[in-house]
Design a protein that fits this description.
- The structure holds two protein chains of two kinds.
- By secondary structure, chain A is mainly α.
- Chain A starts with a helix and ends in a 20-residue tail after the last helix.
- Chain B is an all-alpha fold.
- Chain B has one domain.
- Chain B has a two-stranded antiparallel ribbon with strand order 1-2.
- The two termini of chain B are 25 Å apart.
- The mean pLDDT of chain B is 91.
- Classes of the chains: A mainly alpha, B mainly alpha.
- At the A-B interface, helix 2 and helix 3 of A face helix 5, helix 6 and helix 9 of B.
């Protein structure tokens, strides 16, 4: 199971970073989503991987799953979901306004040359 | 246990939805509530700062659960001072937003402003790393809304970059928190400080990675080169009052670095040795240099101010990364100065925009209200470039003095002094193009008459400049206070014992869980 979880995190992070470097809004947002999935699984695994163990104290049980990462993951999921929704809306607005979905500034635009990168 | 410390978080959290729900179509009512809220926040922040000024650690356990299981809010000298600075800045920014009418150019300015304050104040007061992440997200999501306030293509494009960069930063933050939790099993800062010292020297790989990741996250927030790329576009395109409020946001990153790397990973800790003197100090020096060169190279006034923010953050980080009590005391003095000076300059750039409709640094006919604006720009530029008599000069002296015993003393002195010269040239060039050359340009006959900026706008900028002047006049007292603050930071035992040993609900197990 360790191999499965570790490679899942690794593959999602790789894919996420590759997509981040595409510099167009849609792939970048997909990349960020993949990265947040990876980090959610990572947070989940930070309390050690256990199978079939209860997270709440009960009598006659000695092995427990760590309940705290589950709470952390829940918070992280909600936040990343909301943030992704916000960036989709702002990205759509920027695309519809300028008919261009590049994340970086284009040199031919009248504004100043690029500082911002994703 | 006094409840006052949570009031500065609760008040904006309640005020913001109230403004959205009850007063969304009445800008007058929104303004009244927003100003009243900020005034109340100033009173609370002043009270807290007074209470903490004798060295008391103010502790608040949410739900009465004891640390490290419950979340705690902690107020010491540093955090209460930062809260006070935030609320004072917010008052003048709000006055400017009302005076210039920026708050009417889009919806929900005041509600987002209150949420932004809630996030910033919460980030300063929390004693728990995951809670710090949550407050970072609160302040970020409010800042996304404020950043694209009043819309427009250029602003939306800059907004996309800003949001994406910060989302990546948040993801990194979560990776750092995950590794810290996996290595130590806690996220409470005081508890972490105890547990990190217990890690055996052979098993420090994980915690080293976590320490570096965490530093990266805070460096993104503090816009340390090479993680500064988000700042120039987004600060330049953001509405001026919002950019002025954002001046405190880079300081949240600097605050987090001071807090975590004096308490959890103190400079004498073996596992993080080399992090601040080998990596952070050179990066800070490069930020300072790049920021001030950017000031000289900028083609627009708003970009010039944005680069001066990077430069002054570089200066703050130089002083911080010395990690000596003198260095931190100088950094804190300069941090207050840099926040006020950056906010002043952003507001002045909006005065210029009001008077001449653009910010290009090219000779154009004299703007409306040119005399007063020029005078304020002069004062703001003196402050930011670090010339006497304003506090930037004293701050730089303190930084130079603190760096005197450092190994990199030659580099620090050389870069601080030469970048000061470059920034003086940059500001002098911008000022002479904007205000002096204007008199040699004949106005075209069909030029529309631009409106004078409102009186209230000038009052807000003047208020910030008078705060800067007070910061310079009372420099002895302020520096004395930041010295005691640094002493408190370098002796964190009272903080740690207060947080860990204060009993809460169910501290004594009763037998039936």
């Amino acid at each position: 199971m360790e191999l499965l979880v570790a490679s899942a995190i690794g593959i999602m992070t790789t894919g996420g970073i590759y997509l981040l470097l595409r510099l167009r809004t849609f792939p970048v947002i997909l990349g960020i989503s993949l990265l947040t999935y990876a980090v959610n699984v990572f947070l989940f695994a930070s309390g050690r991987l256990t199978t079939g163990a209860p997270p709440v104290l009960r009598d006659d049980i000695t092995a427990y799953a760590d309940p705290l990462p589950q709470a952390l993951v829940l918070t992280a999921i909600v936040i990343s979901f909301g943030m992704t929704a916000v960036v989709v809306m702002i990205g759509l607005g920027a695309f519809l306004g300028s008919n261009d979905d590049h994340v970086d500034d284009q040199p031919d635009l009248p504004e100043d040359p690029a500082e911002g990168q994703s | 246990m006094s409840h006052w410390i949570i009031a500065p978080v609760i008040l904006p959290a309640l005020l913001a939805p109230f403004i959205v729900l009850a007063a969304r179509y009445h800008i007058g009512i929104q303004r009244v509530f927003s100003i009243a809220g900020v005034l109340a926040l100033i009173a609370m922040a002043a009270g807290l700062a007074w209470e903490a000024s004798d060295g008391t650690i103010i502790l608040y356990q949410l739900g009465d659960w004891a640390a490290p299981f419950g979340i705690v809010l902690v107020g010491d000298r540093l955090s209460t001072l930062m809260v006070l600075l935030t609320t004072l800045l917010a008052l003048f920014v709000l006055l400017y937003a009302i005076g210039s009418g920026w708050d009417e150019r889009g919806r929900h300015f005041h509600a987002l402003f209150q949420f932004q304050l809630m996030g910033i104040i919460g980030a300063f007061l929390t004693g728990d790393l995951f809670n710090l992440f949550v407050f970072f997200e609160v302040l970020l999501i409010a800042s996304y809304g404020l950043m694209i306030h009043a819309g427009g293509n250029a602003r939306l494009r800059a907004g996309v970059q800003y949001v994406l960069f910060n989302l990546i930063g948040s993801t990194l933050f979560l990776f750092a928190l995950g590794s810290i939790y996996a290595e130590t099993g806690t996220l409470n800062m005081a508890d972490l400080a105890n547990r990190v010292t217990l890690i055996s020297p052979d098993e420090t790989v994980g915690i080293r990675v976590a320490a570096v990741l965490l530093l990266l996250v805070f460096a993104i927030k503090a816009a340390v080169v090479p993680l500064h790329f988000w700042l120039p576009s987004s600060y330049a395109e953001a509405p001026a009052p919002v950019a002025a409020l954002f001046a405190i946001m880079t300081k949240v990153g600097a605050y987090a670095i001071i807090r975590v790397y004096t308490m959890v990973f103190p400079p004498d800790l073996a596992i993080t040795s080399g992090l601040h003197d080998v990596w952070l100090l050179p990066a800070a020096l490069i930020s300072l240099a790049i920021g001030m060169v950017g000031v000289l190279a900028a083609k627009r006034l708003d970009r010039l101010v944005a680069f001066s923010v990077i430069g002054s953050m570089g200066m703050v980080m130089v002083a911080i990364s010395l990690f000596t009590p003198d260095g931190i005391a100088a950094a804190l003095y300069y941090m207050v100065h840099s926040t006020l000076a950056a906010a002043t300059l952003f507001l002045i750039s909006d005065l210029v925009r009001t008077g001449r409709s653009n910010l290009e640094l090219t000779p154009q006919p004299a703007m409306a209200g040119t005399a007063l604006t020029a005078g304020l720009f002069f004062a703001g530029a003196i402050a930011m470039a670090g010339l006497p008599p304003l506090s930037g000069f004293l701050g730089k002296l303190l930084v130079l003095e603190a760096a005197f015993n450092s190994d990199l003393m030659v580099w620090v002195w050389a870069i601080v002094l030469s970048s000061s010269l470059i920034s003086i040239l940059g500001f002098a060039r911008a000022g002479s193009i904007l205000f002096w050359k204007a008199h040699s340009v004949e106005p075209a006959t069909d030029t529309p008459v631009m409106p004078q900026p409102a009186i209230l706008s000038y009052v807000a900028v003047g208020g910030l400049i008078s705060l800067l002047a007070a910061h310079a006049v009372f420099a002895g007292q302020v520096h004395g206070y930041t010295t005691t603050m640094a002493a408190q930071l370098f002796a964190p035992e009272p903080y740690i014992t207060t947080v860990i040993e204060t009993p809460g609900k169910l501290s004594e197990p009763t037998g039936d869980y």
